[in-house]
Specification:
With 297 residues, the protein is mainly alpha-helical. The chain has two domains: 46 residues; 214 residues, MetI-like (MetI-like fold), CATH 1.10.3720. Helices cover 71% and strands 0% of the residues. It has 15 helices and no strands. It is flat, with a radius of gyration of 26 Å. The chain starts with a helix and ends in a 6-residue tail after the last helix. The C terminus is likely disordered.
Length: 297
Amino acid sequence: MEIAVISSLNWRTRKRIRTGFTRTFAYLFTTALALVFAAPFLWMLSTSLQDPVQLTTYPPKWVPGPMVWGNYPASMSYPMRPFGTFFKNSFIYTILATAGVTISSAFVAYGFARLDFRGRDALFILVLSTMMLPHEVTLIPQYLIFHKLKWIDTLKPLVVPPWFGSAFDIFLLRQFFLTIPRELDEAAILDGCDYFGILWRVMLPLSKPAVVTVIAFSIVGTWNNFMGPLIYLNSTDKLTVAVGLSLFRQMAGGEGFVDMGQVMAASVTSLAPMIVLFLAAQRYFITGIHMTGLKEG
């Protein structure tokens, strides 16, 4: 009996040690991997606090000395690079485009998830197939259409298309809607809700992780969008932050000189809203992506 008890204790001890070793190794490996991915951002942050002399020092310094905090106000103060206006334009563009893609995708996803109509599955496959079409293929036709509408050099070519939905966001929301029991729809109907009421009062509140994920992805993609504003916007006072950063190479220093410290300072400043967004919504990313694959539909 004593031998069995001792054997059991030894087994539990060995299991506890193995579990602790495995967990420690996993944490160390994850931390090392995170540092590898964070290295470019850390180098950008370090460069933003260096002057031109430090930037030419070999070997390069990860920790600047002294730190040149003046790069940040200097990068925003050039009249030819009105970053205050760029940020305002980016915020307007991001808010309008995100609101449009979230609202329209939610309506379409609800229709594919809950409404029964002829050709629904075929139409859903058609919507998904648009994700396989490269953006470059439709670039010229879209430009010609917007030129005919006299929308060039306005935010309309960037803001209006998102209000027609996004195939990826439609898929994401539809898959999440399918995980919600239909009994809740029936209960809402008995309480007098119509289709819009079911979507607004039942589906969306229960789909908060997926909705927040769609919003976050849209904000990041819109804020970092470079190609669209570059093509459709011509006036400096209408540019977004992503395109405004490219003006450093054209104007910084006057005679072709680019102060990389100021470039990186402006880049860090433009990236700050996305970092805050990710820290605030990271748990919704995981939940939203995980839950979308629970049911096929």
